[in-house]
Amino acid sequence: MSEQTLAEAWGLVPAVLGIVAVGLVLGLVVAAVDRVVVSGAPRAAVEPIRSSARLLFEQRRTTLAPDRLLWRIGCVAVPTLALLSLAVVPVGGRTLWSTSADLVWFNAMEALLWAAVWLVGWGPNAVHALTGGYRFLAQGLAYELPLMFALITAGLAAGSLRATDIFATQENLWFVVTMPVAFVVFVASAAAFAFWGPFAAPAGPDIAGGVASELSGVDRLLVEAGRVVFLGASAAMAAALFLGGDSGPWLPGPLWHLLKTLAVVAALVWVGRRMPVLRPDRTVEVGWMVLVPLTLLQALVVAVLVLNGFYA
């Protein structure tokens, strides 16, 4: 291996450490907000830390004839892909991991997350976990296109697939003003991929916890961490793509982005905890019959605005 290659490899270390650090903080914030909303007591914010420590020392359960390799791959892939989706979120005018097509990268990580969660359900060789895995497959397929169309709409307005370019285009007007449907669909689709709130059917109590029913110890910690990190990464991306990212008066830019991210997280948790879990067939029906046409219509409206020089 040449010295140049080694230097490039070492150069990635700060980016990787930064992604992990930001991901852990975001995950803890999402979990803490969730516990506070559920319990109504601010002291419940430390409960995720206690639960994580307990799971670290909890013994793993097993099932009869599991596919351990695929099971472990799925459990490790969920938090890994959530962290990688965070890598292209612009903060302070730059991303932790620079690509020429940040929106494609984010969407690819979300699509791979779909496969990883299904492996978590397939691996244990247990009926409830497998049922939850197939529920997630159907749900992910229904919400993949709406999420992709929402991302494309933001990219269309900016004329770029770079998250930093999209953020810069919102200097005078946040995209949420002209594309509110894309914003809501993006956030809802992110919740669906984290099987959160009304989209929690893949881990529903009617199937004994579904895709997470056989998880314990470190495996459960990894999957739960992946869920909250992905939700936090999606909230940060929503703030960048639709809420102007760092833009705002008086306060430093990164602080504005943090406040907007926290606002999206709080809204997700508050709404998610107050809505009933949708039946799997209803969830899929909403995705295909409502969200796909709405996002296509939203993209059409934005395309007309682009042709008329609205975002120039």
UniProtKB/TrEMBL annotation:
Transmembrane segments: 12-33, 69-91, 103-121, 141-161, 173-196, 225-243, 255-271, 291-311
One function term, GO molecular function aspect: NADH dehydrogenase activity
InterPro entries, A to Z: NADH_UbQ_OxRdtase_su1/FPO (IPR001694)
GO (cellular component) term, any one: plasma membrane
Membrane topology: Multi-pass membrane protein
Keyword vocabulary terms for this entry: Membrane, NAD, Transmembrane, Transmembrane helix
Localization of this protein: Cell membrane; Membrane
Keyword NAD: yes
One Pfam family from the record: NADHdh
GO terms for biological process, alphabetical: aerobic respiration
Superkingdom: Bacteria
PANTHER family membership: NADH DEHYDROGENASE SUBUNIT 1 (PTHR11432), NADH-UBIQUINONE OXIDOREDUCTASE CHAIN 1 (PTHR11432:SF3)
Entry's family note: Belongs to the complex I subunit 1 family.
Protein name (record): NADH-quinone oxidoreductase subunit H
